[in-house]
C-alpha cells in the first residue's frame, strides 16, 4: 500500500494523538493543503468541479455558514431559521422553474440525493401490481441506477442516437407498462451537455399516465438564464405539461457550497409520499421529510445567502460569460476537421474524432495542465465550462493548446494513448471478463480513498 497523501509533509494520524495538536498548527497544515489543491483549478483548465471559483464569494458563504454550522435543521423548534432558509430556497427555485402555486420542494444533499428522493417518491406514490420501474435515456446520470438499485426499482435504459444523443422516443413509449412509475429526461445530461426532448417526453408521460422527472441537477441554475439571454434553450421545466418533478443542484451553478440541491414537485401529494413516519416507537413519535435525519443549518444558511446575494442579475451576468466562453471553446473544436462535437451542446460540450485517437489529444492537454473528463462509446472528451474558464487568457490558451494537441495526436497515430486504457472498448458492452477486471480496479480505487494509513 502506498503512503497516504501528504505523508512526506505532515504527520500521519493512525490513532488519536495523546495530546491535542495546537489549533494554529492544524490551521497552518490545512491552509497549505488548500492552497496547493486550489492551484489545480484556479488556472481555469479544470472541467466542471469548481463552478464558482470566487474566493470572495466563498468567504462570504463561510461567514454565513459559520453562524449556523452548529445548528441542526432537524430541530426546527430551536432553529426556526432553518425553516426560513429552506422554504425560501425552495420558493426561489420554484419561481425560476415556472411552478404553480401548489408546487412544493425540499433541499437535499446534492444531485444524487435529489434523484434518490425523486425515485423514492415515485415508488411510494404510484400503485403498481409488480416491481416498479423507470425508463431513462442511457445518457441519464448513473445516480438513477444507484437509486433504483437501493430502492428495488427496475431501470430500463433507452438507447440514444450516437450522433445527436437524443433518446429514442418510440423505445421509451414501447417500454412503459403498468408497473412504470416514471420516465426521465435531462436538461442537460452530464456526458454531452445536450438537452433531451422534454416536451415530447411530457406528451408520452401524459398519454401513458406516468410521471416525468427532469434531471436539471447540472443545468438547472444556468439554462434559464441562457434562455433569457437568447441561447437556444427549449422549455424543460414546469411549463411543459407532463413534467412532475425537477431536480436542480444549488451547489453547481447556484454557486452554493457542496452538499445542497433542490428537488421540486408539481404536486404536494407526491412529496408527502416519501415522508417517513413511525408513530409507535418507544422514543416518541418520529417523522422526517426525507432520508436524512440531522442536517446542517450552516449549509441551508450559506445556500440562501448565496442565492439572495447574487439575485437574477448576478446569475444572468455569470451565465452570459459562461455561454460566451463555451461558444468560443466549441468553435475552437469545430475549427479542426478531425474533431467533431457530439450533438448540440450547451455550456458543456463533448467532442470525438472519426480518424484520430481522441485520447492522444487528452494526453497532450494534460501536459498543458488541462483536466478533461474521458468518455466511451464513442471515445470522447468533455469540457464543462464554469466561471474559472471565463477568466482572461483561458479561452486563448484552449485554442492554442487544442491545436497543438491535435498535431500531437496526428504524430502519434497507431500508438496506444496513456489515458485510454480503462475507458476504451467495443461499443455495445464489455465481456464478462473485462467487466470483472474493471470492477476490481474500481474497488481498489474506492478502497484507497478511505484506506487506513499503513503502519510506519
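Q: What amino acid sequence fits the structure above?
A:
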Amino acid at each position: 500500500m502506498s503512503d497516504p497523501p501528504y505523508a512526506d509533509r505532515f504527520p500521519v494520524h493512525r490513532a488519536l494523538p495523546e495530546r491535542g495538536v495546537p489549533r494554529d498548527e492544524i490551521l497552518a497544515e490545512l491552509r497549505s493543503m488548500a492552497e496547493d489543491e486550489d492551484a489545480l483549478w484556479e488556472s481555469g483548465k479544470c472541467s466542471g468541479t469548481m463552478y464558482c471559483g470566487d474566493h470572495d464569494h466563498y468567504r462570504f458563504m463561510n461567514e454565513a455558514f459559520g453562524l449556523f454550522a452548529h445548528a441542526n435543521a432537524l430541530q426546527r423548534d430551536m432553529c426556526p431559521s432553518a425553516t426560513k432558509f429552506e422554504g425560501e430556497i425552495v420558493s426561489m427555485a420554484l419561481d425560476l422553474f415556472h411552478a404553480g402555486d401548489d408546487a412544493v420542494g425540499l433541499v437535499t444533499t446534492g444531485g444524487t440525493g435529489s434523484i434518490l428522493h425523486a425515485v423514492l417518491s415515485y415508488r411510494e406514490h404510484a400503485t403498481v401490481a409488480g416491481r416498479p420501474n423507470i425508463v431513462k435515456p442511457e445518457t441519464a446520470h448513473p445516480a438513477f441506477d444507484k437509486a433504483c438499485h437501493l430502492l428495488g426499482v427496475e431501470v430500463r435504459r433507452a438507447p440514444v442516437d450516437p450522433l445527436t444523443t437524443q433518446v429514442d422516443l418510440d423505445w421509451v413509449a414501447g417500454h412503459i407498462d403498468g408497473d412504470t412509475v416514471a420516465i426521465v429526461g435531462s436538461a442537460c445530461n452530464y456526458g454531452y451537455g445536450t438537452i433531451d426532448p422534454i416536451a415530447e417526453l411530457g406528451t408520452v408521460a401524459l398519454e401513458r399516465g406516468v410521471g416525468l422527472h427532469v434531471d436539471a441537477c447540472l443545468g438547472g441554475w444556468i439554462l434559464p438564464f441562457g434562455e433569457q439571454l437568447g441561447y437556444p434553450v427549449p422549455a424543460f421545466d414546469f411549463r411543459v405539461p407532463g413534467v412532475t418533478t425537477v431536480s436542480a443542484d444549488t451547489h453547481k451553478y447556484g454557486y452554493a457550497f457542496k452538499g445542497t440541491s433542490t428537488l421540486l414537485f408539481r404536486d404536494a401529494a407526491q412529496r408527502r409520499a416519501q415522508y417517513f413516519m413511525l408513530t409507535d416507537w418507544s422514543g416518541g413519535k418520529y417523522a422526517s421529510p426525507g432520508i436524512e435525519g440531522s442536517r446542517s443549518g450552516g449549509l441551508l444558511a450559506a445556500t440562501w445567502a448565496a442565492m439572495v446575494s447574487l439575485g437574477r442579475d448576478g446569475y444572468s451576468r455569470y451565465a452570459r460569460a459562461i455561454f460566451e466562453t463555451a461558444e468560443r471553446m466549441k468553435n475552437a473544436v469545430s475549427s479542426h476537421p478531425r474533431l467533431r462535437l457530439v450533438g448540440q451542446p450547451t455550456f458543456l460540450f463533448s467532442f470525438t474524432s472519426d480518424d484520430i485517437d481522441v485520447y492522444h489529444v487528452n494526453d497532450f492537454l494534460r501536459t498543458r495542465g488541462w483536466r478533461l473528463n474521458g468518455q466511451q462509446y464513442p471515445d470522447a472528451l468533455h469540457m464543462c465550462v464554469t466561471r474559472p474558464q471565463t477568466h482572461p487568457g483561458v479561452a486563448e490558451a484552449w485554442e492554442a493548446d487544442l491545436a497543438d494537441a491535435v498535431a500531437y495526436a496526428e504524430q502519434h497515430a497507431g500508438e496506444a494513448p496513456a489515458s485510454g486504457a480503462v475507458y476504451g472498448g467495443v461499443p455495445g458492452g464489455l465481456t464478462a471478463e473485462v467487466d470483472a477486471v474493471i470492477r476490481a480496479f474500481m474497488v481498489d480505487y474506492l478502497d484507497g480513498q478511505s484506506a487506513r494509513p499503513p503502519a510506519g
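Q: And what stands out in the fold?
A: The two ends are 11 Å apart (CA to CA).
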